[in-house]
Task: structure prediction
Amino acid sequence: MQSNAPVSVGFSGSNPVHIIAIGASAGGGAALRTLFKNVPLQTGFSFVVLVHLQPHEESYLELVLEGGTQLTVSRIQHGEQPKRNHIHVAPPGRWVSLEAGYFVLHPFIRKTMNFTINHFLFSLAQHPPLGCFAAVILCGQLNDGAEGALHVQRAGGVVLVQDPESAEFPSMPESVLLLVELSKSCIVSVEAIPLALAVQLNRCEGLLQTRR
Result:
């Protein structure tokens, strides 16, 4: 039975890893490349990328992202822990959760196909790490990520969305804005997300320091 207690995700309580979940769908490949092109190497963040894929669809997202970032990119393995300065890419044919600090891969069922982002965000909110955590929703169709982002915010996490006006497919960020109250500083272009994320997580780190 899994515990709901916060975990350090493989790091000491005085130096926990910060987990950034990024969800995207239609048009998300270009948005992800742009985002990671603007992420510095030594942020210390662990990025988890979740996109919509058919169960038997081959994914080349790791190769695509590797070409535009200095961060290490790899496909998520069952039982793996999030790593600093690393991009973890969800595999096709599985949905992913984070439980007690470890990635868990679940068998694909059709009703979960369009809600893979929500499922991971639900688990992140239910099993929050000791460090800061965030949900970032990029362009895409339908509304995956909206309910998950709300759960993340209620659990004390940060939520950022791509400005719908800059999104090729704005439905996903628009759906978040219908459910989650965000300041203008959290609704930004893809290029500006890394800086906005750093600002928000610096505030989070300050709060964590006061609680230790």
Observations:
- Residues 1-13 have pLDDT under 50 and may be disordered.
- The chain has one domain: 18-211.
- The first strand starts at residue 18 and ends at 24.
